[in-house]
UniProtKB/TrEMBL annotation:
Gene3D superfamilies linked to this entry: alpha/beta hydrolase
GO cellular component: membrane
GO molecular function annotations of the record: hydrolase activity
Pfam family, one: Abhydrolase_1
The entry's keywords: Hydrolase
Magnesium keyword on record: no
PANTHER family hit by this protein: AB HYDROLASE SUPERFAMILY PROTEIN YCLE, MONOACYLGLYCEROL LIPASE
Domain AB hydrolase-1: residue ranges: 80-316
Record-linked SUPFAM superfamilies: alpha/beta-Hydrolases
InterPro entries on file: AB_hydrolase_1, AB_hydrolase_fold, AB_hydrolase_sf
Official protein name in the record: Alpha/beta hydrolase
Amino acid sequence: MGNEKILTTLLGRQDLIWSDYVKRETALWIGGSLVAALGGAALYTRIATKRIEREVPVDGAFLDVAGARLHYVDRGTGTPIVLLHGLGAQLRNFSYGVADALASDFRVILVDRPGSGYSVSTGSQPGILGQAAIVAALIEQLELQRPLLVGHSLAGAIALGVATHHPDSISGLALLAPVTQPPQSMPAPLASAIKAARIGRTLFANLLGTPLSRATYGLRWGKIFAPDPVPADFATRGGGALGDRPVSVNAALVELASANEDLIAIVRLYGSLKLSVALLYGREDQVVDPAIDGERAVAAIPGATLEMTDGGHMLPVAHPQASARFIRECAERM
């Protein structure tokens, strides 16, 4: 009996030792696979970023303002018009066709917003109102004498932030498919966590942001352009590829996280606006609802006007002539 007990004990211990060994090996294998996958993702991001920047190089000059180093293109002479692109985009959204239609008669300034294109923030990544202050600083440093400010999509909210919080900087707004109301698309605790988690955002953007953005490029932009087709050269000529880089992913996260809180502060001041505000939406916009963002803004902003045109959300790229006509008419009314 004694020997049987000893044997049973030894076999039990052997089973435990084997079980522990399997668990350790499994954990090491999983950990090693995870490290390898993250390392591969980081390498992919680095290679993809370099390729994107070769295909879509710098177009203009740089200007340092408080909070950012801004990449911009300055063309033409006459009444100044400042053009701000939407979420995850770049100034080539406007050079695709709109700028050429305006530069013969106006001074046209196309701007990469902080974290987009080749503009970078020099402190923490700014949200909607933070970018509004940066745009106002750009206007002041370039001595533009109260230009017409154009904002597409989420940059419409930034342009409205300039109008409400820096009203002496501009003479009017021409907004293309603008976000004008708090989107309420992100729970407040999540938004606060994203804004606070600077290291976490950076890790996500550098490890997963670019691979995910590249993998979903066609689907993502297809939904944004719909029902208009995505131009075959949008990634390069339209600057779309630059939005896949880590810096742009990080900026987009902060902009989305700050949109609700900042727009609440902006909307409260709509009734005090004393400058010209005009809005243009595509009738088939599937990103921003004109019946909500358009009509509510016009009802709240004294003298604001709302126009509709053919097309979806990406008016500056898919419908540059209609966009340029609208901007021109707004500039001529100033």
